[in-house]
Fold this sequence. Notes:
alpha+beta; Nucleotidyltransferase, domain 5; Actin, Chain A, domain 4
Amino acid sequence: MFRKLFQIFRQDLAMDLGTANTLLYTRKNGIALNEPSVVAIGVDKGAVLAVGREAKEFLGRTPQKIRAVRPLRDGVIADFDITSKMIAFFIRKVMVRLSISRPDMVICVPSGITQVEKRAVFESAKQAGAGEVRLIEEPMAGAIGAGLPVHAPTGSMVVDIGGGTTEVAVISLSGMAVSESLRVAGDAMNAAVQRYLQDEFLLKIGENMAERIKMTIGSACPLAEQLAAEVAGMDISSGAPRTIRISDGHIREALAEPVRAIIRTVRKTLEKTAPELSADIVHQGVLMAGGGSMLKGLDKAIAEDTGLKVLVDEDPLTTIVRGAGRTLEDKKFYRRVYIA
């Protein structure tokens, strides 16, 4: 009886600890949290002032006594202490009732993660209040989240474009037959937009503005209908505020190099794939997931370059955490997909 009560009150969690956003999944509620991976702290005492969506609005707007920090870079932990505080805040936010135990967690990590980086994830989660911690590589979680046959002797290709990394993998028999991890993704696209406007228009803009432009009019291929947007920033020559009007063509030019790097990584992965698995991919196509996969025309650009059918998951922002969450429902069945 005690065991049944224990299971009722226990709330195990799956976490997609991303450079741009952190998502939490519970078996009872599904996606329980989706917040930016940003923390605002006081410079003097290091106190946490805001976390998540509220803290993201602080970026580029803080006085000297406040610092807005993104504690993950390129998909891995850059600031251990702040990451632990952020994870603890998010765990408390989704735990709607007091748990009688520390929640077990499944955490998604890049396929190119090092042993040192793995240890940082473990220790951050433990310090934040987690019980048992398991790690799953993001492409594997994405495949599970999209319902691909990960246990079967069939090749499934996943392209996961997050904030800090692009993960490309071919999955078969509960493992990754081939994988490539590229530290070029959504953040690199935002930075490319900032550089382009600075070089071409002498206009300096913030990270949040660059992201909004990318999402609104950014594209990887010419669009059927031209898009335009007004962009406000600081004139580099005078230091005064200035507004310009730009088109989707400008942003496509700005994003050309990150897009080429992603396509090169997809092609490199395909070149390393065994013929039998390649045949499966020709039949099944390529699955795209992650926020970066929502860039207009990116699926078309990959399809044109590779000659393969490319599909974007129905909810690419949550594919990874949904897959990790599904493993919580039957840890024994999915035990071979964990890397730690």
